[in-house]
Every structure is written in structure tokens, then in C-alpha cells.
Amino acid sequence: MTVDASASFVSGQTALVVPVPAAEPVVRAWRDRYDPAARAGVPAHVTVLFPFLPAPLVDADTRAALAGIFGSHPAFDVRFEDCGRFPGVLYLAPDPDTPFRRLTEAVVARWPEAPPYGGKYEPHPHLTVAQSEDDAVLDEAEADLRTGLPFSARVSKVDLVTYTGTDWQHLESFALR
């Protein structure tokens, strides 16, 4: 969910994520141990936008606008072949990543007050596997992950999730066309 391992989630935050169930067999053990989002209930995913709007602002009109935005984008296939790193973060890189970028751009065009990662980072589509300041942990995870690569997935929806203060909960799914 975030590229800042020290970041904490705030009650009432929302996010837009693309679940990637095909990744679970490959990444689950590492995410459960080293990804705060996994421990808080978020499945393997590629983030479209985090944080999105505060939960009280996500009303019926917002959801209808999201449905319209996502419904105008085609479903697509993605392949995960390679690992990548940010400082302290190991991730899987989606190929292609352009459709994810277009989804993010479309949401931000509608809600410029919700820049990706609060404007702290440039959006870079990825599936976070592990967050650790210990490079040996990330090296071990990467070596293990490579045995499960490549794999493919069909992207056909974007999920709206919210943080309750203890975990992330699914609110709604929006279909791609």
C-alpha cells in the first residue's frame, strides 16, 4: 500500500487497489511477515491511489463517478516477471504498467486534491511484497519469489477499501469494461 515502511495507516483513510489473487501463492508468506498492509487485511494488489478521499467524503456521487471512470477503461492482462526495489521495499513489477498509470491519472484528474501517496512519491505501479531496512531479508525474499515467477493475471476491477482503525475493509468493486 505504501512505499514508506514507517508510515502508519489512519482511521478513515481509503484507497483504490487492484487485487491480484494470482500473486497470493507466490507472495503471501513474505507479505504476511513483512508488509503492514497484508497484516491489516489487504490482499496482494497494485495500488491505483493511496490515500484516496477520507471515508466520510466517499458518498454515492463519488462512487458513481468512480464507476464511470473505471468503466471507461478496458480490462487487461498483466504479467509479473521481475522484482524491483525502492529503499527498504521489495516489489513485483507489473508488465505492462501503463494501464495502471492510466487508472491513477484518471482518478487524480477528477480528484486532484488526492495526489498519489499524498504527493510524497511519484506513482510507480508495483505489488509490494516486503518492507524491511534489512537488505538480507529483501535478498532472501527476492530469491524465493523468483522461483514463482513469472505469473499472469487478468485485471478486471478496482476495489475501494477503507481503514477502520484496526484493519482494511472492502467497500466496493468497480468493473473495468
Word description of this protein:
The longest helix has 13 residues, at 98-110. The strands form 2 sheets. Strands 2-1-7-8 form a 4-stranded antiparallel sheet. A 4-stranded antiparallel sheet has the order 5-4-3-6. It contains 5 helices and 8 strands, in the order βααβαββαβαβββ. It is α+β, with helices and mostly antiparallel strands. It has helices at residues 24-34, 36-39, 60-71, 98-110, 135-146; strands at residues 14-19, 45-49, 76-86, 89-95, 127-131, 151-155, 157-163, 168-175.
Rg from Cα: 15 Å
Distance separating the two termini: 25 Å
Q: In terms of structural class, how would the helical and strand content be classed?
A: alpha+beta
Shape: globular
What is the number of beta strands? 8
Helix percent band: 25-40%
Number of helices: 5
Task: Looking at this protein, list some descriptive labels.
single chain, 177 residues, alpha+beta, four-stranded antiparallel beta sheet, 5 helices, 29% helix, globular, disordered N terminus
Quick structural gist:
The protein contains 5 helices and 8 strands, in the order βααβαββαβαβββ.
Which helices and strands appear, and what pairs or packs with what?
Elements: E1 14-19, H1 24-34, H2 36-39, E2 45-49, H3 60-71, E3 76-86, E4 89-95, H4 98-110, E5 127-131, H5 135-146, E6 151-155, E7 157-163, E8 168-175
Antiparallel strand pairs: 1-2, 1-7, 3-4, 3-6, 4-5, 7-8
